[in-house]
Amino acid sequence: MLPSELIARKRDGGEIPEADLYEFVSGVGKGEIPDYQTASWLMACYLKGLSRSETVSLTRAMRDSGRILTWPDSCSRIVDKHSTGGVGDKVSLILAPLAASMGLFVPMISGRSLGHTGGTLDKLESIPGMRVDLGLRTFQTLVREVGVAMVGQTEELAPADRKLYSLRDATSTVTSIPLIVASILSKKLAEGTDALVFDVKVGSGAFMRTLSRARELARSLVEVSVEAGKSARAVLSRMEVPLGRAVGNALEVSESLEALKGSGPTEVGELSVVLAGHMSDLCGADPSLEDAIRHAEQKLSDGSALKVFRTMVRRQGGNLEEFERLPSAKVIAELRSDRTGTFSGIDARVVGETVRELGGGRFRIDEEVDPLVGWERLADRGTELGPKHVIGKVHASDEDDAQRALERISSGIRWNGPLYTDVVIEVI
Predict the structure, then answer these.
(1) Has domain 3-49 been given CATH number 1.20.970.10?
(2) Residues 274-322: pLDDT tens digits?
(3) What is the CATH number of domain 331-415?
(4) Fewer Cβ within 10 Å of end Cβ, the chain: N or C?
């Protein structure tokens, strides 16, 4: 089938046969199909949707556009986690070494900042010397020897996804659930995992703002994974306010280290432990989910996860001692309360967009991020504040940026509202 025929069939609401999808995706990955035709097909998919069988076929075709990793028998519990993106979501930095300390093998291929949400790779690269551009052979060696490695997508894994994703971004078709599912799973399936856990964010700071849309995405991710032969589970978690206290790359690494040492905001450690428990449970490494969660709690509290994290960072070239000597941002400005009331938090999307504007995120894919800028919440949610009480601090590169950020974040403060103390909403 010619690309123009494929576009016309989907434009008219027809279903595309698996063989034609494979041929089309292969052509996209090899650069044989021009961008304007690929973009037209994506828009047709966005408007008309994809059936479940089409979504499965598209996912497999994107996976098969590159290499699929294989693992020796000694790596018997290969598992990964994917988050749909949030503000202050540094869970991967804690979760991946935590799962490895529990005897799992975690080949985590992560991404960079996307819109108002942060990126795991950007956070890791705030550690001096840390390399996330490892070749596949080195990546697999580290997973076998350390239990975990955290890297970016390579040219060899799901190359068609790179092209399709960049065109989805350019054509405003990113929010199509079938296209989201195929993009996420093509990379995760190419890792050669046995099981997958999905952290699907819900709320103002998430891409899925409503519970119904989040459930739809979660079910699709799980069902397509199962059809591809993997064990899978989705955890729906809140993203009404930022997760934890820190938003910004170096600030979030610091907070992650505190959590790995057994302290830090309870919701960060809580979500990390729950997700690690589900990962272990899916792999059958513990007798029950309850046992798996208790196992995760033990490994986080006794320093095992921190030890794995330090080893992973060192093996990937990072220097945590030098990280701890990093300077602060040039300007640190306090945000103070202008009233009396119960402080309920700050809207996650407002904080995410503000940190992005400070330079902690990107507006173009080729932009560099500033690892030192960000937001640090000091006031506890649910506490009674009076005028002039310090709510938090903006970390900025100059005074003008700091003042704009203070004004923006101030507009997102929530007073006398719900606290959303239940980080996990439900499991699918």
Answers:
(1) yes
(2) 999 999 999 999 999 999 999 999 999 999 999 999 999 999 999 999 9
(3) 3.90.1170.30
(4) N
